[in-house]
Design goal:
About 45% of the residues lie in helices and about 15% in strands. It is an alpha/beta fold and about 750 residues long. Among the domains are: about 15-70, no CATH class; about 75-155; about 365-550 and about 560-605, Nucleotidyltransferase, domain 5. A hairpin with a 6-residue loop joins β1 and β2 (about 35).
Length: about 750
């Protein structure tokens, strides 16, 4: 097939086209042939007789020098477009030569050629070049990523030298910011390895083994297959063990422990582990003998154990002998409030931020009868909540809120104005805890200035209410304990019965309200309750008490200025469940009170604020830390008003961790918590307890900070109460910074 070459437009045809257009003939700009005015393509060569201006897209006859629409010189415009495109192609080629494919593609993408037949081939050329560069870039990216992945694997495998050689061999086009970082990392690690080797070698030569363990561990981390370093770690271990044995023989337990702590982990064997445990045990026993705040049964047993294991440690054996003498001669030396015999003096500043002591008794409450006295002394500090409940029963309490049937009384039903007071001669305080029932009976005799405790008892539940087995039988367990109580202590018709409610189920709010008449004040409290409590009031049992402050020059009630109101609330179904349990046994229920408020009432009756003697605080506040089975209450007495916070940490946390750490049953762990010397190694038990102590201390700090933030006041002294606080080691931890 023969192809006829297309003729080029004739420059001299311009005059001919101008003449022919006047007679209705269109001259072809390529072959100069004449065509009818209505034709679009040349009849001789087939080329278009009209084409659009590349600038303004106006119709122009082919071969015309200037556009009739915008007036540009068509040839020069096309030449400029072609020259610019060629320059871009050259720039892209230079970028490719410099391995900058991204810049080459960006340069080509910046070209914007006009839509014209003479530029079509150039546009196609640029598109082909752009496609080629894109494929090349993707190929290089795959190779680069594979190379960098290989280098990362080498570094992760601690093959830093091989990674460095691989990096140096990377083609220039593969070198990126990431490859630079990998190069710096590999170089740094090789330099660190060299420095560590030199440091370890020098220390061994000079026999300076202390502090080598971290360096050896670090070197083995960087070079896991360094057998020479492992052999060196073994030599360091042997030297440290020899030195530690010498310190142990000299009864320098702290130094011995510091030495074995320097043994590299990679060199620890069975013998090292055994020696470490022995040293840790002696160190813990010696520290406990030195820092234990009070003399208790565990401390006496610890002293016996230490004296038997280290009879040659003259200093500590003398300390044990002194302890035995004090325990034998000072049975009655303790005060009524602080029955425990003091041992180690408290530090100048306690870890919890204020002085802390164990409060175990009362100076105001009178005990009547041997049975009550024996029970009270056998469980020091465990009857304070029950005592606070009974005090409210005989109307000797500072706070008289009552959750029982509060929703039926209404607001005005809680007021006592105009009502005739009924004289209460006898009241029971029943503290229903998770582990036991604590009961106290107070008798207010007309001739006595103070009420008398004529009954005091602790009745353990058959199964602790916090035990997993008790989840489905909680109701029955409490009923059984209450029935046991009724069998031992029949209730008379005139007795007032006050029962505790757990504070971790209480919503407590402190309200600042203007002083007002009782009815108006009740309305304001109801309004505030709706705003401050995130539950509908008809789902709650709630109660309140106001503490009114007046200016010093006040002469009438009308001058009273501010009413600080304590509002407490609990879910009605929980209070009703408690009431149903008590009713099932046949006990008449008069008061349901928060255990935290009951503890506050005891503190107020006992005048514990008088023990806060700090002169730096104008209105000293004291705190009571009551550690229960599953929850802990912090009750702060500030003036005549309570502040309390409850959190879910208690004695069960220690039981559970002892069971897990020592592989004991829950019953065994509970017994170990009470008698820690049952375990073979006390250091192991208290290593498990220490995190629990720390979490409890953190919650105490958080509570004191919240109190300070809300009131602007500081707690000047703290007292631990309840059975949970008697856990051996707890007071020592809260006093001494770990």
């Amino acid at each position: 097939m023969t192809t006829t070459a297309r003729p080029k437009p004739s420059v001299s045809g311009t005059d001919t086209m101008a003449t022919s257009s006047q007679i209705g003939v269109t001259i072809c700009g390529y072959c100069q042939a004449g065509n009818g005015a209505d034709r679009r393509f040349c009849g001789e060569c087939g080329q278009p007789l009209w084409e659009k201006c590349p600038s303004c897209r106006a119709e122009c006859r082919s071969g015309e020098a200037f556009c009739g629409g915008c007036g540009i010189h068509l040839r020069e415009f096309l030449k400029e477009q072609i020259d610019a495109a060629e320059a871009v192609l050259a720039t892209a080629s230079a970028c490719e030569a410099q391995h900058d494919l991204n810049e080459a593609m960006r340069t080509l993408r910046s070209v914007r050629l006009a839509d014209h037949r003479e530029l079509t081939a150039l546009s196609e050329r640029i598109a082909v070049e752009l496609s080629r560069l894109k494929q090349l870039f993707e190929q290089q990216t795959r190779h680069r990523d594979a190379g960098l992945a290989k280098i990362r694997e080498l570094i992760a495998a601690c093959a830093f030298g091989e990674a460095l050689r691989f990096l140096h061999k990377l083609p220039a086009e593969f070198r990126t910011e990431e490859s630079g970082k990998l190069l710096a990392e590999a170089t740094s690690k090789l330099r660190e390895i060299a420095d560590l080797k030199a440091t370890i070698r020098e220390a061994v030569e000079r026999k300076r083994l202390l502090g080598l363990a971290p360096k050896i561990e670090r070197l083995l981390t960087l070079q896991p297959d360094a057998d020479g370093i492992r052999r060196l770690a073994g030599q360091v271990r042997n030297r440290l063990l020899t030195a530690a044995k010498g310190k142990l023989n000299d009864y320098e337990f702290k130094q011995a422990r510091e030495l074995v702590a320097q043994i590299p982990d990679c060199a620890i064997d069975e013998h090292t582990q055994q020696m470490t445990e022995v040293i840790a045990e002696f160190n813990w026993l010696a520290n406990d003998l030195r820092l234990a705040p009070v003399v208790d049964e565990p401390l006496i047993e610890i002293a016996k154990r230490f004296a038997k294991k280290a009879p040659g440690d003259q200093k500590n054996v003398e300390r044990c002998s002194k302890l035995f003498r004090i325990a034998a001669q000072s049975q009655q030396a303790g005060s009524k409030r602080f029955p425990a015999i003091a041992w180690a003096p408290p530090p100048r500043r306690a870890y919890v931020g204020c002085p802390i002591d164990w409060l175990g008794g009362s100076e105001r409450l009178k005990l009547s009868g041997d049975a009550a006295t024996s029970s009270w002394n056998a469980e020091p500090g465990r009857f304070f909540v029950a005592a606070g409940l009974a005090l409210q029963g005989i109307e000797a309490a500072a706070v008289n809120t009552n959750l029982h049937r509060a929703e039926k009384q209404g607001l005005l039903g809680q007021l006592t104005i105009g009502k005739r007071k009924e004289t209460i001669k006898r009241a029971w305080g029943i503290d229903i805890g998770d582990s036991s029932l604590k009961v106290i009976r107070l008798v207010a005799n007309p001739g006595d200035a103070e009420p008398c405790v004529d009954c005091c008892d602790l009745l353990p539940h058959r199964i602790s209410l916090s035990h997993p087995e008790a989840e489905t039988m909680r109701h029955k367990l409490i009923v059984d304990s209450l029935r046991e109580f009724l069998v031992k202590y029949p209730i008379e018709k005139s007795d007032r019965i006050c029962v505790s409610f757990p504070s971790h189920k209480i919503l407590g709010r402190s309200l600042q309200l203007p002083a007002a008449a009782p009815k108006k004040l009740a309305e304001m409290i109801q309004f505030e309750a709706k705003q401050r409590i995130p539950l509908p009031l008809d789902e709650l049992a709630w109660s309140y008490q106001s503490f009114t402050s007046a200016p010093s020059d006040a002469t009438s009630v009308e001058l009273e200025s501010v009413s600080n109101t304590l509002l407490i609330a609990a879910k009605q179904r929980d209070v009703q469940e408690l009431a149903l349990i008590v009713a099932e046994v046949g006990i008449p229920l008069h008061i349901v009170q928060s255990d935290a408020v009951a503890l506050f009432n005891f503190a107020m009756y006992e005048n514990l604020r008088d023990l806060a003697t700090s002169q730096a605080i104008e209105s000293p506040s004291i705190a009571l830390l009551d550690i229960g089975t599953v929850a802990t209450n912090i009750v702060i007495v500030t003036g005549d008003r309570p502040w309390f916070r409850s959190f879910r940490r208690g004695g069960d946390d220690f039981t559970n961790v002892a069971a897990q750490r020592l592989h004991l049953t829950n019953d065994q762990a509970e017994q170990v918590k009470i008698e820690p010397t049952r375990v073979r190694r006390l250091s192991e038990l208290y290593a498990a307890f220490d995190p629990m102590f720390a979490r409890l201390a953190d919650e105490v700090h958080r509570s004191l900070e919240s109190f300070h933030k809300e009131t602007g006041q500081q707690v000047s002294r703290m007292f631990g109460v309840g059975g949970g606080f008697r856990l051996h080691g707890l007071l020592k931890y809260l006093r001494n910074e770990p």
